[in-house]
Amino acid sequence: MQLSRVDLNLFTIFDAIYRDGGITPASKRLHLSQPAVSHALARLRELLDDPLFERRGHDMVPTPLARSIAANVASSLGGLEQLLQRTGSFDPGTSPRSFTIAMREVNELPFLPALVERLQRDAPHVDIAVVRIDRRDLEEDLQSGEIDFAFDVGLPLSHDVRRERVTSEPLAVLARKDHPSIEGALTLDAYLAMEHILVTGRRRGGGYEDIALGRLGMSRRIRLRCQHYAAACEIIARSDLIATMARSQAELGSRQGGTEVLPFPLEIPPLEMFLYWHANVDADPGSQWLRTALLELLRK
Predict the structure, then answer these.
(1) What is the dihedral of CA 213, 219, 222, 225, to 10 degrees?
(2) Could you tell me which of 185, 167, 197 has the C-alpha nearest to residue 260?
(3) Strand pairing of 195-199 and 221-226?
(4) Which of 26, 85, 152, 189 has its CA at 20 to 30 Å from residue 217's CA atom?
(5) What CATH number does the domain containing 36 carry?
(6) pLDDT of 219 higher than 90
(7) 113-117, 202-206, 273-277: lowest mean pLDDT where?
């Protein structure tokens, strides 16, 4: 099969169907009619001699062949798009670009409203998707263009992934007011004896504070793992459980009332957060513009 005889637009449509799980959402993503997307899929099925997607209820389920080529298709399309972006220009006032930012849900509230306000003012046609971060695939996702930026703690990634430190702040403890085990100040012994909430999207493992405690041969009892700080703050206000988090997050959580923010009872390095992007978009004007905006907003 000669590449010169293949319509590469067919793979753009394949990628959209694979990502969105159906012809209708793919047509909306690509701004094409559903018949046009269906016709292109039929052509690609004939070209590859495989159904590629099989309908099950309302879903289009990829075949084994589709699953085996999806990552390469996405990576190739992402590379071509990045090449075109580097050779073009970017006008935030008129550009219809879309960007994807990966981060933990808890980090959305402090900055996302301000980002939307900036986009409405300066880049009214730019779309943003904020998705859950997957640290295992982060470098691959940045390289392929699956995501454009990531916001997270310090991670062991290669030099091809650029990073810039955004924040550095101490840990704090959130506890309910008049907690029976806290008399004026929270001691380390009291902290270790209490029951804790760990807010995390991971199924197992501790937090930054547990690593620091472990280095000193200490540990704490994590009574509850949950995914949202809002839920943790509500539980803290109604129980004797406490939670450790970045100071800004603790101060935000204390606004619900019934809780107080206390210093973390151990001297440890502050928690650092970084903005990540791949070296292959360093020269992309659109990426440069959004990177400047993100760094400004995240540092506020």
Answers:
(1) 40
(2) 185
(3) parallel
(4) 152
(5) 1.10.10.10
(6) yes
(7) 202-206
